[in-house]
């Protein structure tokens, strides 16, 4: 199907929705009735027969699919049926949004909210042409844990393919290369999983060739990494298999603006898919999750539930671009001092008094001061624990920090500072911690009488003109950006902002932000 036919399909679908506004619910009810009777398959043939049954019921019920298929030629319809419905490697039948993705050529952003079937859609597309020897797919996440945790895309692929008795009995089982993270199919086709936590990781794939390039949770990737990986989406000139780039993700990552400009506001292909579109999900369970964060993080609530690309924290004091434009992966200058600054919150996540807005977080921020006066935000530890758990985390983090500094060959000083509240209670906490941190350069840092807002404003120029750099590719990066760039907002946590301003105060003593702004160091 060509791009030109998509608007015509959308016009028909809009008419269908006007006539039958509850068609989505009707289709989901029909599919769920069939799923309740899903049998235990004894062979690949039984699986395929069941998929045919589900597909026929879905096609009969969903007039949106019928409208789409009226725009396709016979070869396109037959290809879909052969490569998806009759495909023994795909154990599910795609729903409407996923079907639309399969027929959309070129580059596509899919998802936009939690629960829209992004992982499943990606695997369906990856497996669509595995009967062809030349077919190659590259699936990427930011970090290896993102790929491999239970329910993640590589873990889901293993559930479908690895040690599958139906595929083994039929002689169709692919080989799993655990060291290379590649599935190799009997035809010779390959599906590879990779991660690009650091810039150099993306460089490794410059010479690769993938018919289908999938960046899962792509909004977490920097634009530079995306650009490098896009170069691997290529094929031979006489190869008839389709060439596609799929991006999945929700609003709010480091490349939010990039995807919003190209796919949401621009002319790029965007397929919106939310939890309410997915017939296989427990919708009530998802809604309960959304309700838990509705008060504590309204921005995240709008991003996750509504897929709202306009729900992005932006610069009441600090601008997002001041951080995202200055990310680093390697420190190229000498660090003369490392500081782990802690903002304490000895409150467990389930404490009753903090249900609204969620309990506060204990945050430990590792900052490095270079000999040129720049500060590098290298790591963030963030948790909700009781007082004993907080102490244990501070001590274990100190040990890890010291090992990492020594192994790097650095002779930089290592300091530990904890924000000290006023009064005797604050002194008691510091005294208690000092016993467990004997041998470290440890002390309490008295909280200034200034407001949190004034403390943050003291470092606006320092951050604005490029003196603070933040490590790229870390799992904590998006949460950090979302919190500090919306500060101060009622109902949004400010623990990371407190840790940042407290740490900068130790490393770069600044009384206020009234000094003349200076340009970034060269």
Q: What order do the helices and strands come in, and which of them pair?
A:
Elements lengths: L5 H14 L3 H14 L7 H18 L1 H7 L4 H12 L10 H7 L3 E7 L5 H10 L8 E6 L2 H5 L4 H9 L3 H5 L5 E3 L4 E3 L5 E6 L3 H5 L8 E4 L7 H8 L13 E6 L6 H9 L4 E5 L9 H12 L3 H9 L14 H4 L2 E2 L6 E9 L18 E9 L4 E9 L3 H21 L5 E8 L2 H14 L4 E6 L5 H6 L2 H5 L3 E4 L5 H8 L10 H13 L15
Parallel strand pairs: 1-7, 1-8, 2-5, 2-6, 6-7, 9-15, 10-13, 12-15, 13-14
Antiparallel strand pairs: 3-4, 4-5, 10-11, 11-12
Helix pairs in contact: 1-4, 2-3, 14-15
What does this molecule look like?
With 522 residues, this protein is an alpha/beta fold. It has two domains: 3-305, 3-Layer(aba) Sandwich (Rossmann fold), CATH 3.40.50.300; 321-507, Nucleotidyltransferase, domain 5 (2-Layer Sandwich), CATH 3.30.420.320. Helices cover 41% and strands 17% of the residues. It has 22 helices and 15 strands. The protein has helices spanning 6-19, 23-36, 44-61, 63-69, 74-85, 96-102, 118-127, 144-148, 153-161, 165-169, 199-203, 223-230, 256-264, 283-294, 298-306, 321-324, 387-407, 423-436, 452-457, 460-464, 477-484, 495-507; strands at 106-112, 136-141, 175-177, 182-184, 190-195, 212-215, 244-249, 269-273, 327-328, 335-343, 362-370, 375-383, 413-420, 441-446, 468-471. Strands 3-4-5-2-6-7-1-8 form an eight-stranded mixed beta sheet, sandwiched between helices. It has a seven-stranded mixed beta sheet with strand order 9-15-12-11-10-13-14, with helices on both faces. A hairpin with a 5-residue loop joins strand 4 and strand 5. Helix 2 packs antiparallel against helix 3. It starts with 5 loop residues before the first helix and ends in a 15-residue tail after the last helix. Residues 350-357 and 512-522 have low confidence and may be disordered.
């Amino acid at each position: 199907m060509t791009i030109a036919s998509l608007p015509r399909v959308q016009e028909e679908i809009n008419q269908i929705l006007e006539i039958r506004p509850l068609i989505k619910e009707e289709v989901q009810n029909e599919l769920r009735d069939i799923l309740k009777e899903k049998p235990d398959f004894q062979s690949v043939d039984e699986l395929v027969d069941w998929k045919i049954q589900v597909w026929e019921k879905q096609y009969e019920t969903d007039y949106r699919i019928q409208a789409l298929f009226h725009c396709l030629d016979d070869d396109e319809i037959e290809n879909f049926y052969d490569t998806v419905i009759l495909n023994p490697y795909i154990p599910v039948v795609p729903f409407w949004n996923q079907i639309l993705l399969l027929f959309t050529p070129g580059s596509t952003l899919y998802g936009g909210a939690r629960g829209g079937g992004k992982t499943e859609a990606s695997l369906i597309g990856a497996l669509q042409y595995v009967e062809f020897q030349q077919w190659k797919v590259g699936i990427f996440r930011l970090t290896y844990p993102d790929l491999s945790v239970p329910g993640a895309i590589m873990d889901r692929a293993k559930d479908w393919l690895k040690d599958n008795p139906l595929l083994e009995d039929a002689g169709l089982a692919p080989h799993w290369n655990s060291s290379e993270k590649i599935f190799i199919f009997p035809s010779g086709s390959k599906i590879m999983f990779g991660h690009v936590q650091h810039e150099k990781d993306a460089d490794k794939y410059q010479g690769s060739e993938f018919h289908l390039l999938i960046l899962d949770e792509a909004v977490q990737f920097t634009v530079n990494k995306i650009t490098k990986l896009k170069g691997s989406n290529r094929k031979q000139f006489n190869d008839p298999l389709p060439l596609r780039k799929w991006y999945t993700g929700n609003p709010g990552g480091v490349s939010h603006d990039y995807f919003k400009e190209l796919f949401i506001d621009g002319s790029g292909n965007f397929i919106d898919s939310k939890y309410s579109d997915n017939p296989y999900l427990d919708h009530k369970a998802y809604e309960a999750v959304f309700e838990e964060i509705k008060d504590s993080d309204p921005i995240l609530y709008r991003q996750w539930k509504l897929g709202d690309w306009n729900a992005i924290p932006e610069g009441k004091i600090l601008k997002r671009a001041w951080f995202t434009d200055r990310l680093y992966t390697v420190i190229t200058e000498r660090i003369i001092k490392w500081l782990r600054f802690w903002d304490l919150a000895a409150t467990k996540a389930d404490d009753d008094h903090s249900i609204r807005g969620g309990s506060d977080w204990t945050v430990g921020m590792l900052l490095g001061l270079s000999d040129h006066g720049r500060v590098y935000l290298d790591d963030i530890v963030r948790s909700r624990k009781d007082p004993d758990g907080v102490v244990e985390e501070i001590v274990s983090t100190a040990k890890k920090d010291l090992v990492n500094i020594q192994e790097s060959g650095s002779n930089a000083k290592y300091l530990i500072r904890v924000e000290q509240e006023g009064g005797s209670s604050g002194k008691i906490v510091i005294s208690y911690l000092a016993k467990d941190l004997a041998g470290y350069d440890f002390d309490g840092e008295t909280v200034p009488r200034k407001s949190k807002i004034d403390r943050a404003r003291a470092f606006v120029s320092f951050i604005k003109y490029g003196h603070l750099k933040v490590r790229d590719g870390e799992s904590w990066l998006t949460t950090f950006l979302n919190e500090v760039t919306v500060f101060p907002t009622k109902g949004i946590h400010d623990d990371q902002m407190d840790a940042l301003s407290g740490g900068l105060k130790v490393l770069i003593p600044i009384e206020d932000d009234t000094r003349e702004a200076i340009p970034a160091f060269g």
